[in-house]
């Protein structure tokens, strides 16, 4: 099969591609929002601890399984235990669902980048601009299809000539842009309605300082679950992507170093995202501007950029270009995971597989985009929120399937295969697996319990029990 002939050229190519998958749009809006909502520095401390324990465990498992089996999700789980093939199918379905809407979000971001580049930044700051855009029956569809087309073209060109080649220049540029905007945010200042001068440095301290006011056991548990949820989605685990990327890793690559580098890159970008967004919003909008979801990126931030004056246009361009890179790198990994599985299942070539999938997802992206206009629906989700087509796909894949898959995979590795299945792969070339004892404890005892609680919380069952 062609897939077995595809490999990343080396450790750097793998790390940049895997980090690109992990650094998605969620790092740019969800991480800063949660940090602001959940006690600033308190959230950061909890998150960083979880990165080194919980996130490390799931990321290590996925990558090691991929390289050891040399297969994507369905084939990997079937090879491990034929009776567990269903888990592989379930894992495969997650990117299948995510791909229906990821290009839609990418299209929204591309639209805003075009608006800022064309000198129409003031229009983007209008109250109803975002709503008017997504409810249009034409414009959002065009941008979604454009984004989907670029994604498909990169995956069409293969692992080294497509994914790795793009990641090698896109990820360093993304990191530089994030650092530049973060540093600029610290220099901001503004006189508020009360005549007080608010600075970006004050916003940064607000971001870093642990807020323990009103902290209860229940509140702490909620912050813990929020941090786990963010980490879970941020690292692209339990959706087959890292298994697929792991299958492209050459035998001589040191997986221990690779996992550490991916953790550092992803966590660093998430931290810098908070550093570039929270101080800026704090200066011009106070804590009220820290809205969740699209409202932060597409409503609050354009108003902040407008308040910056002339510099706001330049900062807006840099920010949305950064967001395009983050979204594109993740979108590529989602489509690659689907492509790799389909190549194994149907024994088809990469180019033929990508062409068929492109037609399917161009149509799916158009339908999801029109979910805010032509196909508008309102559905009450089990977690109590009201959602449209995009929200439904996101809820099913992220809030239901991914925690459930992670729960089953920890049981499979920790108790059916035993942790040595992964540990042996991590020590394949004689490397020292320094966190071996931690991995054993996490995969067998801690992670299954945490994933079970996260599943109950994300599906709304925990709140009903409480």
Number of helical runs?
20
Question: Which overall shape is indicated by the principal axes computed on the Cα atoms?
Answer: globular
Q: Output the helix-strand order.
A: HHHHHHHHHEEHHHHHHHEEHHHH
**Beta strand count:** 4
Structural class: mainly alpha
Brief rundown of the structure:
Pfam families: SNF (PF00209). This protein is mostly helical and 466 residues long.
Structure description:
This protein is an all-alpha fold and 466 residues long. It has a single domain, classed as Amino acid/polyamine transporter I. 75% of the residues lie in helices and 2% in strands. It is built from 20 helices and four strands. The protein has helices at residues 11-22, 25-37, 41-69, 73-80, 85-117, 121-124, 129-134, 139-156, 159-186, 200-208, 217-234, 241-247, 255-285, 294-307, 310-346, 350-369, 389-417, 420-426, 436-458, 461-465, and strands spanning 189-191, 197-199, 379-380, 386-387. A hairpin with a 5-residue loop joins strand 1 (189-191) and strand 2 (197-199). Helix 5 (85-117) runs antiparallel to helix 15 (310-346). The longest helix is centred in the C-terminal third of the chain and has 37 residues, at 310-346. It is globular, with a radius of gyration of 21 Å.
SSE layout and pairings?
Blueprint: H1 11-22, H2 25-37, H3 41-69, H4 73-80, H5 85-117, H6 121-124, H7 129-134, H8 139-156, H9 159-186, E1 189-191, E2 197-199, H10 200-208, H11 217-234, H12 241-247, H13 255-285, H14 294-307, H15 310-346, H16 350-369, E3 379-380, E4 386-387, H17 389-417, H18 420-426, H19 436-458, H20 461-465
Antiparallel strand pairs: 1-2, 3-4
Protein name: Sodium-dependent transporter
Main location: membrane
Subcellular location: Membrane
């Amino acid at each position: 099969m062609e897939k077995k002939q595809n490999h990343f050229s080396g450790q750097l190519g793998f790390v940049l591609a895997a980090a690109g998958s992990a650094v998605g749009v969620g790092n740019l809006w969800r991480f800063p929002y949660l940090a602001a909502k959940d006690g600033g520095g308190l959230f950061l401390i909890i998150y960083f601890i979880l990165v080194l324990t919980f996130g490390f465990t799931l990321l290590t498992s996925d990558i090691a399984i991929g390289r050891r089996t040399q297969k994507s999700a369905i084939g990997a789980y079937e090879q491990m235990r034929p009776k567990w093939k269903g888990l592989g199918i379930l894992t495969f379905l997650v990117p299948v669902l995510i791909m229906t809407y990821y290009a839609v979000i990418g299209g929204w971001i591309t639209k805003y980048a075009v608006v800022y580049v064309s000198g129409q930044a003031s229009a983007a700051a209008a109250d109803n601009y975002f709503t008017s855009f997504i409810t249009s029956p034409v414009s959002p569809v065009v941008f979604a299809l454009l984004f989907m087309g670029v994604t498909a073209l990169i995956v069409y060109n293969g692992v080294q000539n497509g994914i790795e080649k793009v990641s090698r220049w896109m990820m360093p540029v993304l990191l530089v842009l994030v650092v530049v905007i973060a540093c600029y945010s610290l220099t901001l200042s503004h006189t508020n309605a009360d005549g007080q001068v608010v600075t970006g440095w004050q916003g940064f301290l607000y971001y870093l300082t642990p807020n323990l006011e009103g902290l209860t056991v229940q509140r702490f548990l909620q912050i813990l679950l929020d941090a786990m949820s963010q980490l879970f989605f941020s690292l692209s685990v339990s959706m087959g992507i890292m298994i697929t990327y792991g299958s492209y890793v050459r035998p001589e690559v040191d997986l221990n170093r690779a996992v550490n580098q991916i953790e550092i890159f992803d966590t660093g970008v998430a931290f810098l995202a908070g550093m570039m967004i929270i101080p800026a919003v704090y200066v011009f909008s106070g804590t009220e501007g820290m809205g969740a979801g699209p409202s932060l990126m597409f409503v609050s931030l354009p108003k902040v950029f407008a308040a910056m004056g002339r510099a706001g246009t330049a900062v807006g361009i840099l920010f949305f270009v950064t967001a395009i890179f983050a979204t594109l790198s993740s979108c590529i990994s989602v489509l690659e995971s689907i492509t790799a599985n389909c190549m194994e299942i149907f024994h088809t070539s990469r180019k033929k597989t990508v062409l068929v999938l492109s037609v399917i997802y161009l149509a799916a992206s158009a339908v999801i985009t029109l979910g805010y206009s032509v196909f508008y629906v309102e559905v009450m989700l089990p977690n109590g929120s009201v959602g449209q087509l995009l929200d439904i796909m996101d809820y099913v894949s992220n809030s239901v399937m991914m925690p459930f898959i992670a729960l089953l995979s920890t049981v499979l590795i920790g108790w059916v295969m035993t942790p040595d299945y992964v540990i042996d792969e991590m020590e394949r070339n004689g490397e020292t697996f320094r966190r071996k004892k931690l991995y054993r404890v996490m995969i067998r005892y801690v992670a299954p319990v945490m994933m079970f609680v996260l599943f109950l919380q994300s599906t709304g069952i925990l709140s009903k029990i409480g």
